[in-house]
Write a structure and sequence with these properties.
Elements lengths: L6 H8 L2 E5 L2 E5 L5 E9 L7 E3 L4 E6 L4 E5 L2 E3 L6 E4 L5 E5 L5 E8 L8 E4 L6
Antiparallel strand pairs: 1-2, 3-10, 4-11, 5-8, 5-10, 6-7, 6-9
Length: 127
Amino acid sequence: MTKSPSDDEKNFRARIIEDIRPWGKFRAYPHKNTGSIKIITVKPGASLSLQFHHRRSEFWIALDRGLEITVGKKVWRPKKGEEIYVPRKTAHRLRCVGRSPARVMEIWLGHSDESDIVRLEDKYGRS
């Protein structure tokens, strides 16, 4: 059973602009309420903690193959270019299951900072 998108996710996705040009296309992502935009690189065999955030949702774009993503109870290997919405207060994790480092672009939706991480599991001993 697929969960239907929240209103927050629908509103964010509705503001993404795609423009076709003779050389290809671009996608512009809304940034008015963005707290941060990052490129996260995960080393082969490494993973981020299983975590959630109280004050932000996240929107990820898989930039490489070799990632395994957990959002809530769903675990999958996204395609390169796949866009993933991570709702606020939802457990999530990135793992690199490939032989090369893999990247995701992360957009914070809502104002937050690095202290807004609640770790549920962490193989590096961080709390």
